[in-house]
Specification:
five-stranded parallel β-sheet, 3 domains, alpha+beta, binds flavin mononucleotide, binds iron/sulfur cluster
């Protein structure tokens, strides 16, 4: 049996620039004890069975046996694994004479980034890169076997286990859904789709698009990417395009789903064009475009009966979208030339959203609850920390209408462009409550960042 000598560190800084290669790794444990582990690993298209002894006193070295196995053997062995999978992307980085491996964990351990270096002896010296933080060598909490049983992120919305891996033919497809929402419609579409895909044994990561989350270039580590947004003036809202500009798709298959009050009617059909162009520029392989109709929140919401009718159709529509995503089928919509023109004109309207936001007035009924500030994905609302402080509005509004409609006290009223608000309000929670098929999902609409 060989001996593994390694040191482990948490990662505190930007390491991505130096990466030479990366691969997705998924692994399950037949035995995950401190004294011994038996691991089944899938790394790209290679599979391994690995047995390790307990670490020595310093926690730096242990005996290790590793054997390459066939995918069909891995499939059988995964059936024996304990619940709890490790899902991570491993990055290889050369620093001096050594190769570092940086693991960016996903799923239940999302948020954990750990680096390790293999040494030929415990005495061997090495250069510590600037991004390496606290040393965790020998800390049992950071053993992968332990992380599979007691994950770093206990609140992870999805649970993965070895059986998922088996039933999807070893390659467990990972789908990332990014969505933007103002009044909850696109969020509902995103969450219903995520639930459906999870029920089909896909792992799903779901992210709400917010301006303050655009921090720098980011590459998509998923097998399939889904972008969901509401149609604003025959286009995607401005934050979508800014979001996409910071992403690299690495040829990832991609679906672009627009959500609108009018559906696939004239003047709406070109709403995804600009976004798709940007995605293609950043190496996304857009194979699927779709429109979902939701109750309209702009100017005039439909009557209750019509809202119920639209929402009742949603589960069937989501099933169809999920099937297209799972089968990775190509599907595009016809775009009318006149819509290109209207869509281009609609882009000009985006400038008008700024005065709308800065002119929102707060009435005396405001309790200072902070709900509006927390949920404004354009970071346009500030609220002081003192008790019952009232919100103030800046100059970055994207006119999602979320704050105006969702304030529990109905304390917000726009000064400019007030005609765009339905004076009877817009309450997606209430509408879903009246639609039997969606009642279970009602609590899923969080409006929260
Ligand atoms: C500023 C603004 C502009 C809109 N423009 C359109 C439009 O051009 N075509 C359309 O069908 N719906 C339009 N809508 C309606 C929304 O697309 C629709 O209600 C959607 O479901 C809202 O999604 P959300 O609840 O996720 O914010 C607009 C809504 C807003 C707030
Ligand atoms: S305006 Fe409404 S949501 Fe915002 S702090 Fe006041 S009561 Fe809360
Ligand atoms: S200020 Fe209100 S309408 Fe404007 S982006 Fe923020 S939540 Fe939406």
């Amino acid at each position: 049996m060989g001996q593994e000598i390694e040191r482990k560190f948490l990662v505190k800084g930007d390491f991505e620039q130096a990466v030479t290669c990366k691969k997705r790794i998924m692994q399950g444990y037949i035995c995950a004890e401190e004294a011994r582990t038996v691991r089944v690993r899938i790394q790209g298209d290679e599979c391994f069975l690995n047995i390790k002894s307990a670490s020595n006193e310093r926690g730096w070295s242990r005996y290790e046996f590793e054997h390459r196995i066939t995918p069909s053997d891995a499939e059988e062995l995964l059936k024996l694994c304990l619940p709890g999978m490790i899902d991570k992307v491993r990055h290889w980085i050369q620093v001096g004479n050594h190769t570092w491996e940086v693991d960016v964990f996903q799923g239940d351990n999302q948020g954990l980034v750990m680096a390790e270096i293999e040494l030929s002896s415990e005495e061997e010296t090495f250069e510590l890169p600037a991004w390496a933080g606290e040393e965790v060598t020998g800390d049992p909490r950071y053993y992968n076997a332990m992380l599979s049983q007691k994950p770093f992120c206990r609140d992870a919305p999805h649970c993965r286990d070895a059986m998922h891996c088996v039933s999807t033919g070893l390659i467990m497809k990972h789908i990332r859904i990014d969505y933007y929402t103002g009044t909850g419609g696109s969020e509902l579409v995103a969450r219903l789709l995520a639930d459906k895909l999870k029920s089909e044994n896909r792992t799903v990561e779901i992210i709400r698009i917010c301006r303050d989350r655009i921090t720098g270039a980011q590459s998509i580590e998923a097998d399939y990417y889904v972008l969901i947004f509401p149609v604003h003036s025959f286009n995607a809202p401005q934050p979508i395009n800014e979001w996409v500009e910071h992403l690299t798709g690495k040829d990832c298959k991609t679906a672009v789903i627009s959500v609108s009050g009018g559906g696939n009617v004239l003047s709406n059909t070109a709403c995804r064009c600009k976004t798709v162009r940007l995605l293609k520029k950043n190496r996304f392989n857009v194979v699927y475009e779709e429109m979902v109709r939701m109750p309209n929140n702009w100017i005039k919401a439909p009557k209750e009966k019509e809202c119920t009718r639209i929402l009742s159709k949603l589960p069937t529509k989501i099933d169809a979208i999920a099937q297209t995503v799972i089968t990775e089928k190509r599907s595009k919509k016809i775009i009318y030339w006149i819509d290109y023109l209207i869509s281009a004109l609609g882009e000009a309207e985006k400038k008008g959203t700024r005065p709308f936001g800065s002119g929102i007035k707060v009435s005396d009924t405001c309790t200072g609850c902070g709900f509006c500030a927390k949920n404004c994905c354009s970071s346009n609302i500030q609220i002081a920390r003192q008790v019952q402080a009232k919100p103030t509005f800046g100059n970055r509004c994207d006119m999602c209408l979320g704050c105006v409609y969702n304030c529990p006290q109905k304390a917000l009223q726009p000064t400019y462009g007030a005609f765009q608000i339905d004076k009877n309000g817009y309450d997606l929670h209430g509408m879903c409550q009246k639609t039997v098929l969606l009642q279970a999902y009602n609590n899923n609409i969080t409006y929260k960042k």
